[in-house]
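tool=predict chain=A
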Amino acid sequence: MKILAFESSCDETAAAVVEDGRTILSDAIASQADMHALYGGVVPEIASRKHVEVIAALCDKALADAGVAKSDIDAVAATYAPGLIGAVLVGLNYAKSVAYALNVPLIPVHHIRGHIAANYLAFPDLEPPFLALCMSGGNTLLVDVAGYTDFKLVGATRDDAAGECFDKAARVLGLPYPGGKPMDELAHGSEGGVYELPRAKIDGHELDMSFSGLKTAVVNLAHNAEQTGKPLDRAALARDFTQAVSDELVPRTLRAAERYGRKTVVAAGGVAANSFLRADLQTACDKAGCKLYLPPLSLCGDNGAMIGAQGYYEYMAGARADWSLNAYATREIDDPIVAYDK
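tool=predict ok
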């Protein structure tokens, strides 16, 4: 089964063709990072307009790269939530038009479900159940994945996402947007242990996280150094910041895996590309006797292939959407948009 998939939830426009949820036939991505770097972050209206400009050509490229004709497409999948609402609407409405023109089913896909499914493309042996740590610019979640379409949210950030926190910390350290990779590179220049940064604890909700206090602490340290003329060890601050994020995420992930009886852990999302987090997760999983799946760097960020992968399993579970399907800025991962027609 060949699925043509679209993703446009933030600042990447993506179209891909995926076969049977496991094989990437093509994965075309148009990034807007350089454009938004001028502003230090994503400008939603600019993102939406750029999606409109490139999505048709990107669809043609995905089909050409896959070597398939339009008549070979069995279904169309698209991100419907969560994300920047204007951006999500572009990809979703274009997907509707393609599905209508080709007279094939339209499959709604939750963006974070897609990030988890990126691992199916890289690891043929991976099957649910498992515990997933999803960490990106807009979301940070712990999810118990009992089946391909059976998700239970078991922990989440109460405020900022880990990826957003990386971007804001990078900005005050004078690093370019997006900040994840520059922060990772800078952090490798220090052993850390210089700055004392907070770790949050949510009373009564040990699997929930908070990153706003950490972000504020980094901003205050940088501003104080600037105002007083004191030297700021940027590499040490980047390293200590990264360790603080890891200390929020890794222990909770293993705690959740133990609580829900999972011996397999899956990482997903853009922050899963961070080398320190990958190493800390591997060490913790090895110690706990858990098998860890880390997506290749090419599948950590937003892409269309992950939507096609999850779209296949949504389709097999009976998910279908009609032309009234709307886009949503927020939507829980365990709250399906359509009833499964079994």
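The chain is about 45% helix and 20% strand. The longest strand covers residues 23-31.
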